[in-house]
Write a structure and sequence with these properties.
Structural class: alpha+beta
Number of strands: 10
Low-confidence stretches: 1-24
Order of helices and strands: HEEEEEEEEEEH
Strand content: 35-45%
Number of helices: 2
Helix content: 25-40%
Shape: globular
CATH topology of the largest domain: Immunoglobulin-like
Radius of gyration: 19 Å
Strand order of the largest sheet: 1-7-6-3
Mean pLDDT: 80
CATH class of the largest domain: Mainly Beta
């Protein structure tokens, strides 16, 4: 149990330090699997994310966007106006998820759970042991495919 607390505390501390450093440097801190709104100082025509495996962006309009934290790490976002001039270059730091998360350590194997009230369910996170991670993500993919198929079937009676 002692290893669990040290690992959880060290991870939380690292996430806090990364988030604080990004914020202090004029960057943006985004928890994994969450979005934050970004306001541009003027309308933009093009937006690039340095590493789309870490963060993604969805434009709301020419002056606002949602930034999604996808995986741990730091990248940048560059926005250009219609003439190709740089409007913004912002560091994006993605830290661990917020909320009721539990990380279970068994030897070197790690499994992450999301907890609501008294129920915890697997929440695959980079760094988790491959077997449970692959099982849960496979189930999530299958569930999503079945939902898409149900929608397609309802559109074609």
């Amino acid at each position: 149990m002692r290893a669990f607390h040290k690992t959880t505390f060290a991870g939380a501390l690292a996430g806090l330090l990364m988030s604080s450093a990004a914020y202090a440097a004029g960057g943006m801190a985004v928890p994994m699997d969450e979005v934050r709104m970004l306001d541009f100082p003027q309308p933009v025509a093009t937006v690039y994310v340095g590493n789309p495996l870490i963060a993604d962006v969805n434009m709301i309009d020419a002056k606002r966007a949602f930034v999604l934290g996808k995986n741990f790490g730091t990248t940048n976002l560059v926005a250009l106006d219609e003439k190709g001039n740089q409007v913004l270059n912002k560091t994006i730091t993605v830290s661990g998820r917020t909320g009721g998360m539990v990380t279970l350590q068994r030897g070197t194997a790690q499994t992450t759970y999301a907890c609501v009230s008294s129920k915890c369910s697997p929440a695959p996170t980079p760094g988790d042991d491959n077997q449970p991670y692959s099982t849960v993500t496979g189930q999530i993919d299958k569930h999503e495919a079945m939902a898409k198929q149900a929608i397609a079937n309802s559109d074609n009676p």
